[in-house]
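Let's inspect a concrete specimen:
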Amino acid sequence: MFNNEASWSRIHAGAGADVVLAVDFYGTGRQEATFRHLCDLLPDAPEVWHAVPPTADGDWAAATGAGHLRWWTEGLAEVVGERRVRAVVGYCAGSVFASALADGLAERQGDRPTVVLFNPGAPGVATLTRDFRGLVEGMDVLTDEERSGMLTEMEEIQQAHAPDALVPVAEQYAALYRKGCELLCQRLEVDAELGDELAAVLHSYLAYLTAALDVPPNPAWRSATSITSREHRGADFTETERGFDVARADLLGSRDVAAAVGPLLYGQGGQGADQ
């Protein structure tokens, strides 16, 4: 099902023997700060490796949590070796995978890494709709009327389904996006292969969300620390939550957030920082 070559990418060289793992999905056209931005703000940031989601072939709706976790776990030995994973961080739906990876690392190395989760939560239709809206709004080659029409169709699809009906909504969003990609290729007078590539990225993202829903929660996940933006208060994913008065898009690019996260990653704040 998967055809990437690498399951991890180093996003910060850092120093010291220990490493930090990060889980997020890039490539959906979002304009939000990433873990690269956070690393740039951390003084003496450790070595950080970012999970590379597998490229889905075939039916993305068949993606499983076990499959994604196996993809990352099997590639971990090559990049980490015998070194200790000091911490695992996750963003949005990536928090599910980060927590599950920490479960496996606790067995592998004898102690559970520190887990820090940013705006954590299981994905749903609201998550997908927010990101899909960003995709459509970013299709600048289309006219305002064309983008508006796509957004109207998106809203109609969302309203016709329950908040937890992720797969059927995703299937219709994907078909809508495909039409937009075909129109974009016509407008740019480029080969339809570009549309195929854009659709493939979306399919990998949909597989990522579908797989996150398939990961069974573990009570140990509650021991992590949540870092939340002002739109994400009270998610109740963990016992400890630290909220910041920053927009979602700026959470991983905030100096205040970096100042609070640093002690957690360096083992000075532990999992029980103040809420």
Q: What stands out?
A: The CA atoms of residues 24 and 212 lie 11 Å apart.
